[in-house]
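Memo to structure team: turn this sequence into structure tokens by end of day. - J.P.
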Amino acid sequence: MQQKISILSVNTASNRGKKFPVEKLILSQAGAEGDAPAEISGQVSLFDIAQAELFSEITGARPLEFGHFAENITFEAEKMLDVKIFDRFVKDEVILEVIQKGKPFHDKFREPGNYVMPHEGIFCRVKQGGILLAGDEMEYIPKVFKARIITLSDRASKGIYEDLSGPAVSAELTGQFKKIGWRLQTENIIIPDDENQLRNLLKESLESGFDVIITTGGTGIGPRDITPEVMKEFIQKEIPGIIEMIRWKYGIEKPAALVSRAIAGVSGKTLMFALPGSVKAVNEYMTELKKHFEHLVYMVEAVELH
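Reply from structure team:
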């Protein structure tokens, strides 16, 4: 849920470690001006004052000064934020995008067996620069991934039988994103095995900013099996390895699996997959694919976790 945060202090330091309040924080994609180089270029750190107060209460430490945890931005929120990767903090032209929540253990921030920044620090990359001041308010915008699942079936589109493969994809995808801890909205659509309908729907899906597009059906070698050909018109980078592994894994015992022409790839930052139409095949493919979603998203977003 979107909410406002209030900036209490902006902080920098020429050396790593504790930072000190400054009049303004000048941000560019290289990071904060006048600040020690971050471990990841362009990285800016935020810290909720509520966590600092909790730290003081637990450890009995003296009241902590702004910048104590090496944060660039000390903020206050009306409610504790459930921050996830790719959430954003926005003020006017400034856009900060979360690339990591917490960092590996850091001895520098440990006191009497308790440490906070490694677990509660919020680390962002600067998507758009600008100036932030103490007293400014930023909008916290949670990232919600969007997935569109498209079932291609002449009979299911006419209501002759119920589509089961599309809901199976949705269930597997929802379960995996929940396991990762990411927010997800799914949308299911059924269309006939029609080349033009699929082409128009893929185009509209990409223009609408869907993060994941998965089709089921139309990957065989019949005259109306056109899904891979149409999807390849939009894929900019194919990911053959995952699909080939799945084909061979299940094809050893079920030779019919080797006939599937399933494909995977990327268009911009959108992951695209064309899967077979049977529920059994969908479950087999999704069992393997879901292991890779987190890594694939990090790759297309150019995020390197340290």
